[in-house]
Amino acid sequence: MSNIFKLDIKINTSDITRQMDKLTRDEIPRAISVSLNRIAGAAKRAIVSKMDEAFENPVPYTLGAFRIENATPENLTVAIATKNDRKDGEYITRSAYDYIKTEVTGGQREMKRSEIALKEISGGQYWLPGKDAPLDQHGNVKKSEIIRLLSRLGAMRNVGLNMSDKTARRLARKGMVARGQRSEYFVARDKGNGRPKGIYKYVSPGKVDQILIFTSKTPTYKSRLPVEKTVQETVDRLADRLVKQSVEGALKKRLGG
Fold first, then answer.
1. Choosing a second label site near 252 at 20 to 30 A (CA), which of 11, 23, 82, 179?
2. Is 239 helix (H, G, I), strand (E, B) or coil?
3. Average pLDDT of the chain?
4. Residue 40 and residue 69: Cα distance in Å, rounded?
């Protein structure tokens, strides 16, 4: 019977086990959440870049249509979502996404709130900027003009506001005043069927400005802002690299590699 040499080697693994537990429990999830949020940030920036390409001089409110719901170590899910409505003084402003969603999905757009407010006057039509409409730096009818217009039209049932009787009679003869209402704003109508054509503004004797044009055709848009595709392309391009970097960084920091 031959002799056997046997040397048992034991090491204390409690420290490495403790470090691995901490990595698994805390640091790797934290590293992954950080990388997910970085990916979402890049995707949001890519969407804004696409907006700059798709829209002519978009307003900051539109560019800020999307927000990030950040991932956490406890919830390794990140989301890019649209912002909610906001209150602007006494008015509830539609979310920016309400204005651009037909540019994302394509199809017919919903009525603007101002179009809904003007339904009784416009006959339920949509409006487009008139040739004399005051525009802001982004090419939209100034919000102050729309608010003033709505306010005046709401008050036009009160007799004797803003416009002289002589001017009102002159415009009425041309079929340009709705139901005898008087204001610096008035409604132009087709001579044949009396359908509202648009809203004009009395400026001075002999001068009126075309502010809004009414149209019965529902505005239809092609999809110009591929949000889902843009986000997916960003994820495909960055996910593997950023997650790997974050996890490797956590391992090196914990294990001293």
1. 11
2. helix
3. 79
4. 9
153 three-state secondary structure? helix
How large is the C-alpha radius of gyration of the chain? 31
**Separation of alpha carbons 257 and 243, rounded Å:** 18
How far is residue 32's CA from residue 72's CA, in Å, rounded to a whole number? 9
Give the single-character DSSP code of 101: H
Residue position matching structure tokens 């080697």: 9
**DSSP class of residue 205?**
T
Q: Using alpha carbons, select from 143, 114, 131 the residue that is nearest to residue 213.
A: 131
Pick from 99, 90, 199, 95: nearest CA to 150: 199
Q: Is 24 exposed, middle or buried (0-12, 13-18, 19+ CB in 10 A)?
A: exposed
Q: Which two tokens stand for residue 57?
A: 């001089």
Q: Write out pLDDT tens, residues 45-87.
A: 999 999 988 888 888 888 888 999 999 999 989 999 887 755 5
For the record, the structure tokens of 153 come out as: 């039209």
Return the axis-axis angle of helices 28-54 and 227-255, rounded to nearest 10°. Answer: 150
Query: Which helix (H) or strand (E) element contains residue 93?
Result: strand 91-93
H-type alpha helices, 74-226:
96-105, 113-117, 119-122, 143-155, 165-173
